[in-house]
Design brief:
Strand order of the largest sheet: 2-1-5-6
Number of helices: 6
Structural class: alpha+beta
Distance between the termini: 28 Å
Largest sheet: 4 strands, antiparallel
Order of helices and strands: EHEHHEEHHEEH
Helix content: 40-55%
Strand content: 5-15%
Number of strands: 6
């Protein structure tokens, strides 16, 4: 989870007109990483960068094909287990199915990323793949889904000026969360968030 302290700058009507806030007043934004309660977006929280994957027809079609291939591969593996190591034909089929599944999964991820457009505080908009400092081929899964980039994107969209941020891990530890402690504050992750923060912060203080 994360919170972002912001100020309402001069000539910003997004909040002053609707919430009786004026220049210099503080606004607090909040966000969660990934999904919360199975939902990408919830009222009162900063939305995801891009569009909800399940709202994209191409993504849904590719996702269903990948799911179908998982089932086919499992069935093929089960049949091969009945015969010692399976036949050569079965092994070749498994290899082909696994390769095809990986290709479709990559295409599904590409479709999601195609809609992940990021706008900084200068008003410049670029695809997430174009702002990752290590290059688009190095972009790891989940980039842009953390609390920090969601908060910065929302502040830029609303025309607010960030003044402070904090992120905290809440939940069970162990497994994929090894090394993080419940209720512990953490800096933005180096592999994902820090690599896109440079572009997202452009435009603050006239930079």
């Amino acid at each position: 989870f994360g919170v972002l302290l912001c100020q309402v700058p001069d000539n910003n009507s997004l909040y002053s007109d609707s919430s009786n806030l004026t220049s210099g007043d503080t606004v607090i934004l909040k966000a969660y990483a990934g999904k919360l309660g199975g939902s990408w977006n919830l009222p009162g929280w900063a939305p995801i960068i891009g569009q909800v994957p399940e709202s994209l027809p191409v993504f849904c079609r590719l996702r269903d094909e990948v799911t179908g291939l998982f089932e086919t591969i499992d069935a093929t593996n089960s049949n091969a287990a009945l015969v010692e190591k399976g036949s050569i034909q079965q092994q070749q089929q498994l290899k082909h199915l696994t390769k095809r599944r990986a290709q479709l999964a990559t295409l599904a991820l590409d479709e999601v990323r195609r809609h992940q457009l990021v706008t900084n505080f200068r008003g410049e908009t670029r695809p997430l793949t174009a702002i990752y400092s290590r290059g688009p081929t190095k972009l790891p899964g989940g980039t842009g889904d953390c609390a920090a980039p969601k908060l910065l994107a929302e502040a830029a969209r609303l025309g607010l000026r960030p003044t402070g941020i904090a992120e905290i891990f809440v939940g069970a530890t162990g497994g994929m969360s090894t090394g993080k402690g419940d209720g512990t504050l953490y800096d933005a992750c180096e592999e994902r968030c820090e690599q896109i923060a440079g572009f997202m912060l452009c435009g603050l203080d006239g930079d």
